[in-house]
Amino acid sequence: MRVPSPGRRAGPQHGPSVPGMTIDLATKRFTGAAAVLTLVGVPAGLAITGGHVDGVFTGPLAGTLALLALGIRRWPRTVLVLSLLVLLGQRGAFLLDAGGVWPATAAFAGVVLAGRTRFAIVTGAVALLYWTVWDATVAQQSSDWVLAHSGGEALWLAAVLAGVTAYRSSSLWRAEVAHRITQDERQREVEARRRRAEERVEIARDLHDVVSHTLAVVGVHLNVAIDAFDAEPEEARASLKLAQDVRNQAMTDLKALVGVLREGEVPALASLSGLVDQVRAAGLEVSLTEFGDPVEVPAPVATAVYRVVQESLTNTVRHAGASRAVVTLRYSPTRVVVDVQDNGDAVPEPVVDGHGIAGMRERVAALGGALTAGPGRNGFTVRAGIPIPE
């Protein structure tokens, strides 16, 4: 005898499935009804068919079969065998003239509900064969009587087995459909949570882009104003005015971001010229060149293009020490290529992705594209290719 090792449980670890629980509940409800129907139906059926010899024994037979029916839920096959043995004893003692199978209808139905249809069919066939031989030999009934009673019981048993099988299959199907619907609803809820998480990340990126760009440009103008405050107050005043303009534009961008949250609006490619003008006002010479027609570019791709240009120019203003940047956009029916190059100091060591570069790379990758960023021939280069879905 093998004993399960400590910490290991023998047998399956999973609980019953939802369809299995449904069938178990149906069997539980069926048990009480089966006992009542057996208690009432057996005496009535024997009276109709003339199968009882002495009515005194009909009540105890019905009561015994009804008590056995109460155990259908836990021991369906045992209840069926015991019910047939009770009928065998009654007919073997010549207390019944007919009814060797159908009085155990509730037991047959319980076995089928438990998923043991083959057992019910085999047991019923053996019982019918036995009583057919018994009636023809021991009881010495006529062939017409034997065929009539055996055929009637066979048809009744077939109808019961077919009906209960159909009911069980229908219940399983309904339970499976309900289970799948529940699973689909849970999956949709998980997907909705995932989308909300992605939206929060997207909002964080946009806020980073807007705020970092604004602070970088405003910081440049404030530095100019501080340096020129005493010697050239007019230039300091002009720098502060530009800083104020950039601040106003930042407020506009933030309002646009709120518009994205409320109405799904996205920055248009036409806004790139305004973005370039802001950077030019900070003292960086910027050229914007576009090849192709941007009309057919979808909104997600246009947003990614805008953010790549914005983040690249922001990094140029803050870190590169450059005096000039070149922005080149190439539109084709299947792809948009963004190229931002500056003439800042080349960085000999490997470039470490900051939040901005990582955000650009993730944004582009989410659309099926790729982004590279690193030292070029005369400065720093950011290049991104974003496919346009058909």
Describe the strand arrangement of the main beta sheet, using strand numbers: 1-2-3-5-4
Poorly predicted ranges: 1-16, 347-355
- What does the overall shape look like? rod-shaped
The succession of helices and strands, N to C, reads HHHHHHHHEHEEHEE
Instruction: Measure the end-to-end span.
Output: 66 Å
Number of domains: 2
Q: In percent, how helical is the residue content?
A: 55-70%
Share in β-strands = 5-15%
Radius of gyration: 42 Å
What's the rounded overall pLDDT mean? 76
- Which secondary-structure class do the elements indicate? alpha+beta
Q: What summary fits the major beta sheet?
A: 5 strands, mixed
Number of distinct beta strands? 5
Structural description of this entry:
- Helix 3 runs antiparallel to helix 4.
- Strand 4 (370-375) and strand 5 (380-387) form a beta hairpin.
- The chain has a five-stranded mixed β-sheet with strand order 1-2-3-5-4, covered by helices on one side.
- It has 390 residues and is α+β, with helices and mostly antiparallel strands.
- Mean pLDDT is 76; it is low at 1-16 and 347-355.
- The protein starts with 17 loop residues before the first helix and ends with a strand.
- Helix content is 65%, strand content 9%.
Attribute tags:
10 helices; alpha+beta; 65% helix; 390 residues; five-stranded mixed sheet; disordered N terminus; Heat Shock Protein 90
Brief summary of the model shown:
By secondary structure, this protein is α+β, with helices and mostly antiparallel strands. The chain is 65% helix and 9% strand. The protein folds into two domains: 18-187, no CATH class; 271-390, Histidine kinase-like ATPase, C-terminal domain (Heat Shock Protein 90).
